[in-house]
Design brief:
14 helices; seven-stranded mixed sheet; 23 strands; Alpha-D-Glucose-1,6-Bisphosphate, Chain A, domain 3; six-stranded antiparallel sheet; 3 domains; alpha/beta; 472 residues
Length: 472
């Protein structure tokens, strides 16, 4: 590798808390990626080991995969290039093959971005607390000296396809062969679900299931010509909602760019909240664990998930554990508690049977199984899991976030409430009629509000009162 004369590399703009993400050609380049690949091997002590490298459909992913592989091989690791993969395919491969790995994706970010999600063997996450900072520092050192020192024996680079193995593994976890026939519209958003959906739910690699799949935007295209691959934004669900109604489908599924998150639409074209999906999957996983002899299966949920989730878990004989927002927290608590399943309000779903990693496809399969084993429509099934009314996440652009939270605290201090500070500030009415959380963004000047109440009028009253105070 070569380094420009007198140029000092500082990778802090692209190294985030859980992954690497930057603008192609600016904060993430092939030169940077090669140094990160070398540092990855050194920090994790992987010389002589096999590492797995893949990428999504972004135009820069093949070049970056090769550069990372070159850096890793220079430091003595043997690399298996997995080619086009979803992020949960990487987690599958790292788990099933017990090898560390990396995939190139910027998830739902716009086309100009790419990034790296890295994992230890067994699909254990790497974050700023578990190696990412050290990888950054060593990569900067290699870049600033202009040299990646060669290991005594250069590693070999080969190719491996894991799509069929991944698909077979998921089908073993959720048997859909006995489902009633379902018509499913899937919006892949030109992302990796365009590859994984036909493999897992269709008949491309495995025997056909009793499903008719109506594809939306299955063409892999990292320029995202139809809409951003971010189903968290309501406008990006509109095409799917219209298609579900038009085709008279039973369900709609929307995946983000790297297909690790899944959003669900009912037969009326209405979203089923990620909290309801968490409850639905939790019920199935609790029953399965109990049938296998587990007395009180543990379910993880973050503090923005509907309170319907812990209520349902308790009713079904499980134990609910509340955590901060963010996948590294969830995965850590999953491991500590031996939890069978975890869900987040952002549609990340985690499974013990999937090495505590998140997979949108496995969550979708559980929903299809729940829908397919009964005769009613998804709108009726979903209603059982959504007894409360939620505001969704509302952002306010505030410079003095602490001051805004303090105004809210003072205004509510005469009420019969509890406040906790696990992640931001959560205000809960002691009579159980409402709660809300105010959480400052770590990366943007936003204060995020999530509110939930027993009915629409109460939710709107609380939401509007808090927003008036925050934005005063």
């Amino acid at each position: 590798m070569t380094s420009e004369q007198n140029k000092t590399f500082d990778l802090s703009a692209s190294f985030k808390a859980y992954d690497v993400r930057g603008i192609v050609g600016e904060t993430i380049t092939a030169e940077i990626v090669e140094a990160v690949g070398a540092a990855f091997i050194d920090v994790l002590g992987l010389e002589g080991e096999t590492v797995l490298v893949g990428g999504d459909m972004r135009p820069s992913s093949p070049e970056f995969s090769q550069a990372f592989a070159n850096g890793a091989a220079t430091r003595g690791a043997n690399v298996q290039l997995l080619d086009l993969i979803s992020t949960d395919e990487l987690y599958y491969a790292c788990g099933a093959l017990n090898a560390a790995g990396a995939t190139f994706t910027a998830s739902h970010n716009p086309a100009a971005y790419n990034g790296i999600k890295m994992s230890k063997a067994g699909a254990q996450p790497i974050s700023s607390e578990s190696g990412l900072k050290e990888i950054q520092a060593l990569a900067e050192q290699y870049l600033n000296t202009g040299v990646i020192p060669a290991a005594p024996t250069r590693g070999e680079i080969g190719v491996r396809d894991v799509l069929k193995d991944y698909s077979e593994y998921l089908r073993k976890l959720v048997d859909l062969s006995g489902s009633r026939p379902l018509k499913i519209v899937v919006d892949a958003g030109n992302g990796m679900a365009g590859l994984t959906t036909p493999a897992v739910l269709g008949d491309k690699l495995l025997p056909a299931l009793p499903f008719e799949i109506v594809p939306l935007y299955f063409e892999l295209d990292g320029s995202f010509p139809n809409h951003p691959a971010n189903p968290l934004e309501p406008e990006n669900l509109r095409d799917l909602q219209a298609a579900v109604v038009k085709h008279g489908a039973d369900i709609g599924l929307a995946f983000d760019g790297d297909a690790d998150r899944c959003f669900v639409i009912d037969e009326k074209g209405e979203p089923v909240s990620p909290s309801a999906i968490t409850g639905m999957v939790a019920r199935r996983e609790i029953a399965r664990a109990q049938a296998a002899g587990e007395e009180t299966p543990v379910i993880i949920h973050n503090l923005l998930t509907s309170k319907a989730v812990p209520e349902l878990v308790a009713k079904d004989g499980g134990r609910a554990v509340r955590t901060r927002v963010g996948h590294s927290f969830i995965k850590a608590v999953m491991a500590e508690e031996g939890a069978v399943f975890g869900g987040e309000h952002s549609a990340h779903f985690y499974f013990r049977d999937f090495w505590n990693a998140d997979t949108g496809m496995l969550a979708a399969m559980h929903v299809l199984a729940a829908l397919g084993e009964q005769d009613g429509p998804l709108s009726e099934l979903g209603r059982q899991y959504e007894p409360y009314v939620s505001s969704g996440e509302i952002n306010s652009e505030i410079e003095d976030k602490a001051g805004a939270v303090e105004r809210v605290r003072v205004d509510f201090e005469t009420e019969d409430i509890e406040i906790d500070h696990m992640d931001g500030s959560t205000f809960t009415a002691k009579d159980g009629s409402w709660w809300f959380n105010l959480r400052p963004s770590n990366t943007e000047p936003f204060l995020r509000l999530n509110a939930e109440a027993k009915d629409q009028a109460t939710m709107e009253k609380i939401r509007d009162r808090v927003l008036a105070l925050v934005r005063a």
